[in-house]
Amino acid sequence: MEKYELLYTDSFANSLDTFISDWKKLKLSQKKIDQYVQKIFELVHSLEYFSDRFADVTDLYQFDQRTRRILIGRQYAIMYRVDQKSRRVYVGSLVSQTQMNFKF
């Protein structure tokens, strides 16, 4: 089984930084934040071998490119796209599921 390359968008890094900052303001412990971030990266890294693992939400959100969604707990999601030809996974923003503004 050939491995896919993970490419994190700038919007992913920015959104993760924003959420971490918000969690700190909410007085979540550093241990809890670290556990949550670790879970996020475990789910994303699973895409290296199982790129189609999560639900296709292209029609649900009316994207013009095939897009999949990783659900993280009840509150958060990450949208990602897979380029089968180049074997790359483009990881988009971490968003609250109540947000509808997804960026890649």
From TrEMBL:
This protein's superkingdom? Answer: Bacteria
List, alphabetically, the Gene3D superfamilies matched.
RelE-like
Protein name, per record: Uncharacterized protein
